[in-house]
Amino acid sequence: MKKLWTNIMPGKDSMADSIFHYYQELPKYLRGYHKCSRDEVFQLGALIYRVKFEEDKSQFPNIPEMPKELIPQDQIRHLSPDNWKRSIVALFNKQSGKTREEAKISFLSHLQVVYIWLSLL
């Protein structure tokens, strides 16, 4: 699978990040191609939720029904839906004030750090 990260720096071209890079990496992340710790998965799940719904908290009750949209497939079975919800909502609340575009760039930045760290191993 081709990686974006060869010459890309998240935030440098926010238009490309918002329109292209985020939507290219999101499916790869959800399929489990990026190996992340559980804390990173919580953080990234909160960022994905923010991209989808921005500040709309009315969808919080639906988080247990949408794990495949927020959590990598290989991680879903590790916690109950309520634990995923509780952790994602807590981190979502800590990120208050972030726009969709900022959330996309944060998502890409987190994945880039994970990718660079794994490539050093």
Any descriptors?
121 residues; mainly alpha; 60% helix; globular
Question: Explain this structure to me?
Answer:
This protein has 121 residues and is mainly alpha-helical. It has one domain (35-120). It is built from five helices and no strands. The chain has helices at residues 14-31, 38-53, 67-70, 81-94, 100-120. The chain is globular. The two termini are 19 Å apart. The mean pLDDT is 86.
SSE blueprint:
Layout lengths: L13 H18 L6 H16 L13 H4 L10 H14 L5 H21 L1
Helix pairs in contact: 1-5, 2-4, 2-5
Protein name: Myosin VIIA
Organism: Hucho hucho (huchen)
Pfam family, one: FERM_M
Give a nutshell description of this structure:
The chain is mainly α and 121 residues long. The chain has helices spanning 14-31, 38-53, 67-70, 81-94, 100-120.
